[in-house]
Amino acid sequence: MNASTVVQSEVVSLVNISSQxxxxxxxxxxxxxxxxxxxxxxxxxxxxxxxxxxxMDLGDKRSMEFAITAREIADDIARExxxxxxxxxxxxxxxxxxxxxxxDELAEAQRRLDEFHRRLVAAADLEWERSHNPMFITDLDRRxxxxxxxxxxxxxxxxxxxxCPACGEKIKPGVAVCRSCRAILNPEKAAQFGLVPSGSSVxxxxxSAPGGSNASAPTDNEKSATESQSHRxxxxxxxxxx
Length: 242
What we know:
Layout: H1 3-9, E1 11-16, E2 25-27, E3 31-33, E4 45-50, E5 52-59, E6 62-68, H2 70-82, E7 93-95, H3 103-131, H4 139-147, E8 162-163, E9 170-171, H5 187-192, H6 220-233
């Protein structure tokens, strides 16, 4: 067996203990690779990494092949994933020494992951104490708290929002007028605060939730006024008396 065959047959195990789903990794020397995540009930997932050959462009239509070991590829992918959230971050991805991770390797990876999650939670606690604004709490902070099974006041948004039935933008529950498209969602409330003239036809019309009617039915007085106006505006025909 020559050296080239040894390089091509080399395989190492890239281990992931996090439930996070990663987008495919792309490299010129192997194309696209999906790092596996543990399924429900599993503690870890293994992605086999194989050695590859890279090509170096030397110019003048010359190129040179060089071997890239499986360990180098696996270390590169693990470093990229773990550093995804900045310096010192760790997302539970490591390269096992053998085909399967040992108990010591899994325990060490879990320790590092928990430590990283605790740092995120501590930073979120400080931010919440300063601002009490859920907009400043990241999804990564919330995921860290859930992984540690902690119940934090910033873990859930206390102000859920609805969708405007007219434009689809997010609105607070119970608002009278949509701030984006100015649709009147609650005519009585809008008239109460002077947003529309009280008793006007605009105040009698509102946008309902999806699946409901879009406007209130005209009253008998409105029908009579419309018919009277239509009668007055009807032009005289040829047979009409002069």
